[in-house]
Amino acid sequence: MTALLERTETVYWRYTGVMADTTVKVDPAVRDRLMVLARERGTTMRDLIAELAGLTPTKEELRKRYEETKAYCETHFGVTLTDEDHDRAEKVWQDLEAGRPVDSL
Q: How far apart are the C-alpha atoms of 19 and 12, rounded to whole Å?
């Protein structure tokens, strides 16, 4: 019986073609948590991280979403939101997150 062996560079290329392009170093506790989350969702850690990255908006995406929401409110509800309104709403969210009492908007 004869075994046919492929050249090392061919095997390496096939292996790296499906493996990660980058290694991300995290604390073992973070790695373990990511593994648990991935298993609970029935996915791989690689796909979980890709999903988390895809669902987390950038500052620019958040700014665009804010502008679109502001325009929608003005068009559909006749409400013009000022920068002061925005700042007041941000403070309410910060107070809520910190467990502080919240004044009315």
A: 10
Structural tokens at position 33: 């948590």
Report which residue type is found at 83. Answer: D
**Beta carbons within 10 angstroms of residue 45's beta carbon:** 15
- How much of the chain, in percent, has pLDDT values that exceed 90? 64
pTM over 0.90: no
Q: What is the Cα–Cα distance from 35 to 39, expressed in whole angstroms?
A: 6
pLDDT tens across 23-65, in order?
889 999 999 999 999 999 999 999 999 999 999 999 999 999 9
Helices (H), 1-105: 8-18, 28-40, 45-55, 59-77, 83-98
Contact 34, 45 (CB under 8 A): yes
